[in-house]
């Protein structure tokens, strides 16, 4: 039997996600990815930061499970990972 995660552990996950989403450029990146999967280079063309900075933001969001990447030749195509938002959505439903 799998033991459910404690409320404290769930809340730490929510706090981690909120910290990641607290960076405005990441929210803009997520909004663009919600429209269509894209590359870091394409994202950087529309943002006031370098491609390198976009890649760093994407890596942070990918490690949190909010973004997923697939290799297409030499490019990495990034897309939203809806499952990564589930802890945050569940917490919001509990407090709303």
**What assembly state would you assign to the polypeptide chains in this entry?**
single chain
The first-to-last residue Cα distance is 31 Å
Q: Spans of 5+ residues with little confidence (pLDDT < 50)?
A: none
Compute the gyration radius: what is it? 15 Å
> Strand content of the residues, in percent?
5-15%
How many β-strands, per DSSP?
A: 2
In which range does the helix fraction lie? 55-70%
Number of helices: 5
Question: Major beta sheet, specifics?
Answer: 2 strands, antiparallel
Biggest sheet, strands in spatial order? Answer: 1-2
How confident overall, as mean pLDDT? Answer: 93
Quickly give the structural class. Answer: alpha+beta
Question: How would you sum up the global shape?
Answer: elongated
Order of helices and strands: HHHHEEH
Task: Describe what you observe in this structure.
With 96 residues, the chain is an alpha+beta fold. It is 58% helix and 12% strand. Strands 1-2 form a two-stranded antiparallel ribbon. The radius of gyration is 15 Å and the shape is elongated. The termini are far apart.
